[in-house]
Amino acid sequence: MDELNQYLLRLYRASREVSLDDFPEHALTLFNELVPFDSARWGTTAIDERGASYQTPWFYRDPPESLQDYNEFREQDTAATLVLANPDITHNFPLAEYYPASSGGLRSYQRRYHHEHALITAHLNAETGLYDALSAYGASANRPFTEAQRQLAEFVFSHLREALRINQCLNIERFRPRGDGYRWAMAICDAGGRLRFAEPPFFELLIQEWPHGARQVIPSELTQIASSKQTAKLIGRSVVFCVKVIRNSAFIHARPRMQADGLSRRELDVARQVAAGLTHKEIAKALNISPATVRHHIQAVHDHLGVHNNAELTTKLRNIDI
């Protein structure tokens, strides 16, 4: 019991202190000290007509190419089917014995990647409709997992999920825009656009902009930005999205569209300079345009935003950027 308590303390401490990209591997390293295994795969899983479809999981001593090879045989994976049909229960599989002889391709895959034994658990995420799944593999046919290890893995899995969520929430707060205005809703996805974490208001805004979109994956317009690894803004019909890619994760900020989002690029440049307190001459010099053009743009901005002075203009601009 003392070992378990120490593990949980270290896990939750790590959720606060370890970076977003490093946390999954760190958490699995701690888990490996509690329940020894040789490799693991942790992430989200969907179900389609071919069976379990892993969504860019984190790999622990398991080659990433194993997932590509698995896709060739995944409709044969009766172990995954059983686990997904019985969520929140850890199953202890002697895979070499469990897979029938008729599933020759899957048995060959299992031997090639040394997945002799497996502790597999899944939990249905009601927010996304995806399963959070963890597979821990033993490489030795003569060293199966015990019932005590299965029970321990089942108990720990909910803590792993919660610690990951805490880590994601804390990292989101580090990148949330500060100010006294509108609170941006945020989400985290991978380069393929698959959501790893999202706040409830983010889903509301996503559905507002794309009423018929799926909750598991962001729309292609946002996925293209995330996969390009560029920081960019997408101004939709009713919602504005800003995407910032940091290492292997894309942070997506979302808020309702505002009047200022309808300004042209030049009008917005001028408006920002006004909000910063620059004079007409200073703005003209900074943007390499004439003072008369500056006055023209400022009047156009006032008309568009329905403001009467620069103080009101500054208030209107306060919430449009991350």
From TrEMBL:
Protein's name according to its UniProt entry: HTH luxR-type domain-containing protein
Gene Ontology process terms (BP): regulation of DNA-templated transcription
Keyword entries, A-Z: DNA-binding, Transcription, Transcription regulation
GO molecular function list: DNA binding
InterPro entries found in the cross-reference section: Sig_transdc_resp-reg_C-effctor, Tscrpt_reg_LuxR_C, WH-like_DNA-bd_sf
Domain (HTH luxR-type) ranges: 256-321
